[in-house]
Amino acid sequence: LAKTTQPISMDSYEGQEVNITCSHNNIATNDYITWYQQFPSQGPRFIIQGYKTKVTNEVASLFIPADRKSSTLSLPRVSLSDTAVYYCLVVRSNDYKLSFGAGTTVTVRA
Amino acid sequence: GAVVSQHPSWVICKSGTSVKIECRSLDFQATTMFWYRQFPKQSLMLMATSNEGSKATYEQGVEKDKFLINHASLTLSTLTVTSAHPEDSSFYICSASRGGLMNTEAFFGQGTRLTVV
């Protein structure tokens, strides 16, 4: 599976939009881009998944350019409770084995 | 959404004893479950793939005789840490996927904090 690269950490303030960009240069045709959120001492939680263009759900948006070599997770109007580690993963269709990178620690301040 | 439950949430055991951790998919059947380990300030590391009705597949460097995995039913996988030592202290997390052609979403348990003293 394609290796992912994302910033180690990001700081933000309440009410701001947070954008985390992930690089996955070697993504394959059968691969999807998936983001997970993890709070301390909890298992990761699925946020959003996409293949191309833009995907939006109630918590986030995912922007994927045409070449699919990168993706950007957008968290609108973050709050203190959005402080967590966010993982970008490349997942192959029908392969549920996940390989986690270092993730991005997002810290939201008041 | 689908729920995966782990038990216990935390456990403290004496060095040399064995500890069993359960992972259950509460509202769907999972032919495959995964076990991860996470040390403080680090990412999740896949330990093994648990296959219902067959032997688990272990990742390189994971001792299969130390981390026994049993997947006896479509809703339950267990991880037994045998002869635990302090270096086995970690956060153990399981996951399962509902399956389906387009569904690659994995559901994670809440994790089990193991402390070996």
- Give the largest interface: A-B, 23 and 29 residues
Largest sheet properties of chain B = 7 strands, mixed
Ends apart, CA distance between termini of chain A? 38 Å
Given the helix and strand composition of chain A, which structural class is it? mainly beta
Percent of sequence in beta strands of chain A: over 45%
| DSSP strand content of chain B | over 45%
Major β-sheet profile of chain A: 5 strands, mixed
The CA-CA distance between the termini of chain B, in Å, is: 37 Å
Give the spatial strand order of the biggest sheet of chain A: 1-9-8-3-4
Tertiary shape of chain A: globular
Helix run count of chain A: 0
Account of the 3D structure:
The complex is a heterodimer of chains A (110) and B (117). With 110 residues, chain A is mostly beta strands. Chain A has no helices and nine strands. Chain A is globular. The N and C termini of chain A lie far apart (38 Å). Chain B is mostly beta strands. Chain B is globular and about 40 Å long. In chain B, 35% of the residues are buried. Classes of the chains: A mainly beta (110), B mainly beta (117). Chains A and B meet through β4 and β8 of A and β4, β5, β9 and β10 of B.
Summarize the structure.
Chain A has 110 residues and is mainly beta.
Q: Topology, pairings included?
A:
The complex is a heterodimer of chains A (110) and B (117).
Chain A: E1 9-13, E2 18-23, E3 31-38, E4 45-50, E5 53-56, E6 61-64, E7 70-75, E8 84-92, E9 104-109
Parallel strand pairs in A: 1-9
Antiparallel strand pairs in A: 2-7, 3-4, 3-8, 5-6, 6-7, 8-9
Chain B: E1 4-7, E2 10-13, E3 19-25, E4 32-38, E5 45-51, E6 57-58, E7 67-73, E8 76-81, E9 90-97, E10 106-108, E11 112-116
Key structural traits:
A: mainly beta; five-stranded mixed β-sheet; four-stranded antiparallel β-sheet; 49% strand; B: 117 residues; mainly beta; globular
